Hints:
Layout: H1 3-24, H2 27-45, H3 48-54, H4 60-93, H5 95-100, H6 108-134, H7 144-171, H8 175-181, H9 184-190, H10 206-210, H11 214-226, H12 233-257
Helix pairs in contact: 1-6, 2-4, 2-6, 3-4, 4-6, 4-7, 4-8, 4-9, 4-11, 6-7, 7-8, 7-11, 7-12, 11-12
Amino acid sequence: MSTLALAARDTTTMLRRNLLHARRYPSLTLNLLLTPVMLLLLFVYIFGDVMSAGIGGGNRSDYIAYIVPGILMMTIGSTVIGAAVSVSTDMAEGIIARFRTMAIYRGSVIIGHVVGSVLQILASLIVVGAVAVAIGFRSADTTALEWLAAFGLVTLFALALTWIAVGMGMASPNAEAAANSAQPLILLPLISSAFIPADTMPGWFRPIAEYQPFTPVIETLRGLLLGTEIGHNGWLAVGWSLALAVLGYLWSKSLFRRDPAAR
């Protein structure tokens, strides 16, 4: 077999291993998925009328349309914590050190975690999206090309955050520390334009919401699904996603190659 074929075989094996772990221990994924679903229901049914009035009138259905893209991005941020915990657990239990001694493609261990996490994120997005549709979310005449662009955007952003989470997991001494270090991936959407427009925030707080990765990604997804103006947010969303993916990949690669004794 060629080197590429061996790498693909080993990566597929590691992917299967991670998916089996996720299936046998679903509690972590379900707990992480519960956060965006509960926030969606909370903001729609408890704060929906007040929040819709605060962003320029309308009714609860208008606020559902506004909030869903942000909740979908929050779903990505919360689900990738599972990748950080899974990688940290493998590091602490020594299984990655054992894989290092085997005649397998070295990168397959981490790539398996990344691909498995992205697949779990896409499944979580489907669940949250189904809940959103069930409570009244409807896209506004979205074309097939826009749906394809939206799928590509969420997949790219999921890949980027997963690489960051993998780096956090490898840098953490245990699973608890990994989960704590990945908490900003849940908190950042809360201070973005997910729930209210950034231009309605206080002047001192607005730059925090505007100059972070979640806001342009949310605005781009919102534009694709609802037909609103995207402007320069599309380029910023892609740029942030690529930059985070490259940063996370290089960070994870550096940690993976580091001598285990130095950890």
